[in-house]
UniProtKB/TrEMBL annotation:
GO terms for cellular component: cell envelope; cytosol. One of its GO terms (biological process) is iron import into cell. It comes from Antrihabitans cavernicola. The gene is efeB. Binds 1 heme b (iron(II)-protoporphyrin IX) group non-covalently per subunit. This is Deferrochelatase. Residues 98-120 are annotated as: Disordered. Keywords: Heme, Iron, Lyase, Metal-binding, Oxidoreductase, Peroxidase, Signal. Residues 225-407 form the Dyp-type peroxidase C-terminal domain. Pfam families: Dyp_perox_C, Dyp_perox_N. Residues 54-213 form the Dyp-type peroxidase N-terminal domain. Involved in the recovery of exogenous heme iron. Extracts iron from heme while preserving the protoporphyrin ring intact. Belongs to the DyP-type peroxidase family. It catalyses: heme b + 2 H(+) = protoporphyrin IX + Fe(2+). Its EC number is 1.11.1.-.
Amino acid sequence: MSLQENRGISRRGLFGALGAGAALVGAGAVVGRETAPGDSSTMADVVEFRGEHQAGIATPAQDRMHFVAFDVISDSRDDLIALLRTWTEVAERMTKGEQTYDNGATGGEEYSPPSDTGEALDLAPSQLTLTIGFGPSLFGTAEKDRFGIFSKKPAALADLQHFPGDILDPARSGGDIAIQACANDPQVAVHAIRNLARLGTGTVAVKWSQLGFGRTSSTSASQVTARNLMGFKDGTNNLKSEDTSEVSQFVWVDPKDDQDWMAGGTYLVARRIRMLIEAWDRTTLNEQERVFGRAKGSGAPKGSGAEFDAVDLQSKGPEGLLIDKAAHIRLASHESLNGIKLMRRGYNFTDGSDGFGHLDAGLFFIAFCRNPIEQFVPMQLQLSRKDLLNEYIQHMASAVFAVPPGVGQGEYWGSTLFGGAEGSPGPSNR
Ligand SMILES: C=CC1=C(C)c2cc3[nH]c(cc4nc(cc5[nH]c(cc1n2)c(C)c5CCC(=O)O)C(CCC(=O)O)=C4C)c(C)c3C=C
Ligand SMILES: [Fe+2]
């Protein structure tokens, strides 16, 4: 199906055609086939919203992202729960390609604002996934426990420490609640976040947001590896959803780990990493490949022939180690980190220029892991101290969120934390 034809199918009409198939597939499953990033034939697909785990983590990474962090501006637990219930129902509708409310964009009162903003009318579901996470600040303190959840704060959920070289912007870091929208059409992702933010008026306020494109990590073996803005294939040696035992070991929180409500959930670490693109672009190909330890063209480990060849960190040439002792893939490898792995799911970004003639561009790094303190922190500590890449990057913002498990029928986002899954009053038509 061409892009043109695809865009011609209404979101409701398309769901009519796909609905039966979508209902039959399992948790987090994708209806349709997976192809190269940007291939328009993926745009008609629906990713199941309900399931054991939230979609948007181990489901195949889409090509576009809109990520938002909110602060909760109400002190009312009831208001927060009501919003989470509303968000859940509306999010599920949007992932199916439906409007936030039936006929919300054009069918309402002539003298009231429409209850759907309308820019996704006529667009396909585009594999939209919406994934929620709760930041450390949402849980308050023993003294100020505004939502009564301080005792449920997981030990693994703490603001990340300062790493060498960090120059973090507090206005672009942290947040009480995050929602990650991923889709193969940027307008679908933006529509979803915009409408969720609109529905949150009075209860939450947007703290920061980030748009991303060109997924920098494959999360499924069926995907081709995309390139980051440094021109390298990124995601080759990522955890892949097909490797279910490793995903269980490194991504999903086990019931024995910590807080019961997080079983089947995970933690999301976000880092806005600026690339010093102009310096990188003046660097020789030889040096660029030394930095990563891989060939720029094929993505193969240095000294090897093909992208997915096993990495031999000991292999030597006439001038010594083929993969430099400070190469990115050596320092980030599980061999150098006592077996640690995590699932990367980041995106490229460009946010114009910085007023000094430099592109404000880089990698919006996202990783999912079972315990950020035991996985992300040691990995980032090692990279921040020794990585050759540090000469060309700058960590500008940081956030961490507890991502609850997926929602079953009758449950809402966060119901394992706040309780009262059944008897939802349903969304008010705001
Ligand atoms: C703390 C974790 C990581 C940060 C931060 C990070 C930043 C970062 N990475 C690239 C580009 C590449 N990374 C690659 C591999 C790779 N990176 C991490 C972790 C972090 N990267 C891991 C765990 C790995 C896999 C290591 C291994 O076992 O081989 C690669 C190679 C291809 C691949 O396997 O994905 C590239 C390229 C950039 C540009 C960047 C910050 C801007
Ligand atoms: Fe990396």
